[in-house]
Amino acid sequence: xxxxxxxxxxxxxxxxxxxxxxxxxxxxxxxxxxxxxxxxxxxxxxxxxxxxxxxxxxxxxxxxxxxxxxxxxxxxxxxxxxxxxxxxxxxxxxxxxxxxxxxxxxxxxxxxxxxxxxxxxxxxxxxxxxxxxxxxxxxxxxxxxxxxxxxxxxxxxxxxxxxxxxxxxxxxxxxxxxxxxxxxxxxxxxxxxxxxxxxxxxxxxxxxxxxxxxxxxxxxxxxxxxxxxxxxxxxxxxxxxxxxxxxxxxxxxxxxxxxxxxxxxxxxxxxxxxxxxxxxxxxxxxxxxxxxxxxxxxxxxxxxxxxxxxxxxxxxxxxxxxxxxxxxxxxxxxxxxxxxxxxxxxxxxxxx
Length: 352
Hints:
The protein is of the alpha/beta class.
């Protein structure tokens, strides 16, 4: 599988990627390699990774607790302290080995330590392979508010190796499929059709095309001024729903993909009401989502709390919530203002 060239770094695929990593380490002559993992990737992924790394450099492993709840500045301080105590300097390399939490936070940690050290992303979940590890976004949550603290910073390279998908649950695989659906309905409908026809078993092709799409979009709009906003379809409401479940003591947390899937259904309904997005395609998207994900009943008494969380969305300007909506598949409109009553109506539509 060929390498994808991003703005300033390559995305390598499968086993031959590690030769490129070893060569990078040799050429850059890093002082110490810090591998950031959580307890799951330490147990299941690190043993697959380390035999592929050919280097005589010192390797230090820093383990954090898994989960979105730990994607915060407090965890970052712990990692910065660990790197400092282990002798990290400006010639250190941080290797992130994990899902979206690890790649988002690890890139942020590296970019801030001593005003920036190099990092390499090795995503181990489908979600991080097709989305989180590519595109230069790093960051952490502020309380339950998603990705409020962060910066744009590019890795030295990204390694996408499907062998790590054998280490994750079916639920995590489904979480990543939501992002592939997003690429399908906004940019390349063939991806959506493949998921609709249960062709996600050809996962290598789906991953490659998803990375290719994200890279095409980011190359045209690296700082999300215009086109890159399409990658937020489903995320405006989806992030609010994800945050609501994260802060609710009496509800089980949703995965990122589960929340985004709900967001896409709701925002497709809003698209129909605001832009005449065809109703048959609204139902087609809802059918695919409901076939893949367990149905969540959104309680009407929670709607106001979910809408209040929308006020903190990163795309907001002057207090106005901005949605990405669809005129049709592969045809979108950016920065759409939506009445509250219609947002609540969309949540009811998902429930129906």
